[in-house]
Amino acid sequence: MEFHAWAPLFYFPRRYLNLTTCVNNLHYEKFQDGTVKCIEDEIPFEVPEGWCWARVRDIAMVKGGKRLPKGASFSEEITTHAYIRVTDMKNHSVNISNLRYISDEIFSAIKNYTIAKDDLYVTIAGTIGVVGEIPDKLDGMNLTENAVKITNIAINKSFLCIILQTDFVQQQFQDKTHQVAMPKLALERILSTLIPICPYVQQLQIVDRFQICDNFLSTIDTEKEELQKIVSLSKYKILDLAIRGKLVPQDPNDEPASVILERIRTEKEELIKQGKIKRDKKESVIFKGDDNSYYEKIDGEVSCIDEEIPYDIPDTWTWMRLENCCVKEIRRGKSPKYAEISNVIVFAQKCNTKYNGIDISLAQYLDETTIKRYPTDEHMQDGDIVINSTGTGTLGRVGIYRNTDNTTGLLIVPDSHVTVIRSFSCISSYYLYAFMKAHQTELEKKGEGSTNQKELKPLTLKEMLIAVPPISEQKRINKSINVAFSHLAIIEKCLN
Asked: Are residues 316 and 349 in the same domain?
């Protein structure tokens, strides 16, 4: 059997390459004992003339890292021995911002498991197949047992790094991963990975072109991040203008917001007669005096609240406590008892997601035997404003629930970590949502308690001041917000 010689096209010091191409255009692998095997079924695509297929073992060596000795721990101080973990392996390099270090003593025990600037790393446990180069400043540092180093590389290192990142090679890594509780990629399986190789001059050209493209993409990513920040700031600015009466022009023909107070009183009296709510013995009424100061009347007592008023609003607007804007008491849901399946689902904090709004697919089922614990007014309704009320990182997040979000069609109730706000009919739920959303950053800071158990108390929300526009202006504001946000959504979609 005759084989084409291609080795002279490369520089392979101290290497014997097993792979060649037969004259009949089938791919064969020749082993050191002289045996030959057809591997045509392993070849995924044809490579250009002058290229060839090789195993990783033909062009490099693969060696593992080492875990810390039993009972050993990282140094609390920066030493001369960094320990490179998988979590440090970012963007095909090493992120040095959070490196951990080991003492001279520990280094002495695992000094044979270092990685050099001329090596590549490949993650082999947990996250499989992350590939990257070692910065010069980390030359000779220790390598985690969850990664391997590819060393003694006989081709261009950067070219190999590019090849190992390709979908074809990554798929081989995944196919060769040993599926256990903690997935792991064995060294031998890396060594047997097939890779295409081109002449050395082309390797350099590919690396150069790749770098140009990578720099270009990095620039795009940076600009995308900046645009995303601008979009977020634009949303905030739109909401801020809306709640200050600066988003849409005032109409002198609008009924003043003071009319809303009378409509709320009428609606309250009807609900009291129906036994749905109780009379508020300490109802708050906020008004502007002849001296242009703001006053609050509670249970016959009047006090000046100028210090609480955060900004000026149009003359046709009014200030109200959130509690007085709501048709139901501001409170959290109940601690649920879950079931594998039922006809009732539970709205939890995770359903009020950070980026995608309301996601009911994350809800769990309620044990229906406990549904009697939930009064009818706790059954969530279209337009309910939901506020995550516990835990750093999610506390204060504001969302608005729509029936269209609930694709299950099942009854839904809130759990004990979610506060529900439900406005009177003369106050637009969407406007109130916009107002609360504009103050989300402030709400996030109002949590009380320990760091991980902070809570946003219902009382804090009840006392919140709300700037209420005339009903007609509420509608105009809602329309303008929706139009602006729809345009921003298109931009966001293009950025993703």
From this structure: no
